[in-house]
Amino acid sequence: MKIGVCLRVGPRNWVEFSQAVEAAGLDSVWFPEHLIMPVKMSGKPGTPHEGDSPISADTPAWDPWLLIAYLAGQTRTIRLGVNVFNIGLRHPFVTARAVTTADLLSGGRVDFGVGASWLSEEWQAMELPFETRARRVNESIEIIQRLFTEDVVEHHGEFFNFQPVKFQPKPVQSPWPPFLIGGDSPAALRRAARFGDGWLPMGQTPQTLPVALKRLGELRAEAGRTGPFQVTLQIAGPPDVDEMKRYRDVGVDRVIVTPWTHPRDGIEAIRRLGAEVAPQLA
């Protein structure tokens, strides 16, 4: 099992922490993403229409593609991922250009985590209908994947309509940087089966995951999808080796963890993760 680190730290720690992850022999660093933080927010992943938001409007956020491009020049081997990008809030041309540039600058080390979003107020701020997000996300993914692989692309859909265009350069990774589809809903599983090179579950346990993976396998077979497919799971709280082993044993390929409780302990925690935890999961 591979281990990634969620880089929930401020700018002054980005380079040092990323280089520590690389030196520890770990797989990747990952960045969360939101475009804007409305003052009033409700809902949470899996339940967008009820409950209190798990994040505050004061939560700092950065452009993940600028961050990845910056860290690409400070590292050599680790992968650089977004968990997850709110793809429906942007035009697919803008997203495709950013992803391709980041993939080129990193030498093909980008993992593209995609989410349909749970934060309705963020869509309201962007003057986009939250209720159409699933269809908009699907159409955006389809366009971006065509831009990455086809010489000339023309599209006439529900949300986007454009004449024949060309898109150069293509990403380093072929056919594209891995699209890892986030979410646990039936719609998210269908999206992962149809478009994904992997899945980023958000609300699974070692007990529920086998059922979801079985259903995902059925949907992939129905869609005629074959080939490599990776399951990446973010685990909250300090890493627990036994828990990680349970996830590994039911089909998780990579876990994303935050091994420190305070950034001042981060470098040492990353070193321990590489020296003590990773060998137990090999």
Describe it for me?
The model has no long low-confidence stretch (mean pLDDT 96). This protein is an alpha/beta fold. The longest helix has 17 residues, at 133-149. Helix 1 packs parallel to helix 9, helix 3 (92-106) packs across helix 5 (133-149) and helix 6 crosses helix 7 (209-222). It has one domain: Alpha-Beta Barrel (TIM Barrel). It is built from 9 helices and 12 strands. It has an 8-stranded parallel beta barrel, surrounded by 5 helices.
The overall strand count is 12
**Domains, number:** 1
Task: Based on Cα principal axes, name the global outline.
Answer: globular
**Measured on Cα atoms, how large is the radius of gyration?**
18 Å
CATH superfamily: Luciferase-like domain
**What's the CATH C level?**
Alpha Beta
Counting DSSP H or I runs of 4 or more residues, the number of helices is: 9
Structure class: alpha/beta
Which regions have little confidence, pLDDT < 50, spanning 5+ residues? none
Note the beta-strand portion: 15-25%
CATH architecture: Alpha-Beta Barrel
Termini separation: 6 Å
Main pleated sheet = 8 strands, parallel, barrel
Q: What name is given to the CATH topology? A: TIM Barrel
Q: What is the H/E string? A: EHEEEHEHEHHEEEHEHEHEH
Largest sheet: spatial strand order = 1-2-5-6-9-10-11-12
The overall pLDDT average reads 96
